[in-house]
Amino acid sequence: MNVAIYSRKIMKHEVLFFNRIFKQMEDLNWNPIIEEDFYKQLKQQIGLKEGYQIFNSHTDFISGIDMAISIGGDGTFLKCVSYVRNSGVPILGINTGRLGFLADTNTADFERTIDRIQKKDYTFQKRSLINVETQENIFGDRNLALNELAVHKKDTASMITVEAYLGGEYLNSYWADGLLVGTPTGSTAYSLSCGGPIIYPSCGVHFLTPIAAHNLNVRPVIVPDHIPITLKAIGRDRNFLLTLDSHSKPVKTGTEIELRKADFMINVVKFSENGFFKTIREKMMWGIDQRNE
């Protein structure tokens, strides 16, 4: 089994964990294929031997990789998605962060998790992405977001106005610090802290959530994901920021941004006991009240 391994940073307390990972994979005759920069860290910090295969581009996922394992928080998972893209390779998230809505397991359960992967005791949950296009092709071929696109002001300057159109029909002009457009997966990310709704992952929708809207009666909107969305930001500054998940670019004021649902989905590894609502309850500590005991 060829397994792509990606993480961004090894903390001191994680050294033993990473040693265990590669020992268990060796025992199972799995073939780890390690992201190039992460491999350099592994050799330096845990003394990982030479000879492992590496990857450094999404083109390495076209064939020959059976599963990708993301070890870290949600930011690490999102970066892993940028490698996997439309290859169909499923992603298993192992959470080492503080919250981790995207990961389905953690370091303490790793041995059991790998055993279940070996026995194929898991399912895939499909997650949609947003495809973003601009006239100047600002993001090149990295124009996908699993969580959201954010249009927001560049610094502490005055707010911007974001015009939004759905299928060519005018929706609203948002006077705000910015606007988020995202997928159901992104509903538990930035949008959640802006008062956006929590959306079940399989719902075929996109959300529009304003960031610190000037008009208090402006609320998040949910729309079918087959409707294309067009945005145009206007402000006093010459530029604003456009962010796909955690990847940001400065954009000229007045630039039109076209958003559509991507024509493929990401396969996320899920275990039967970790349902969406169970994850929400645990991560957000719903029901943590003595009256419920």
Explain the overall architecture.
With 293 residues, the chain is of the alpha/beta class. The protein has two domains: 2-122 and 271-292, Rossmann fold (3-Layer(aba) Sandwich); 129-262, Sandwich (Tumour Suppressor Smad4). The chain is 19% helix and 38% strand. It contains six helices and 18 strands. The longest helix is centred in the N-terminal third of the chain and has 13 residues, at 15-27. The termini are far apart.
Short overview:
The protein is built from six helices and 18 strands.
General form? globular
pLDDT < 50 runs, ≥5 residues: none
Strand content: 35-45%
Order of helices and strands: EHEHEEHEEHEEEEEEHEEEEEEH
Number of helices: 6
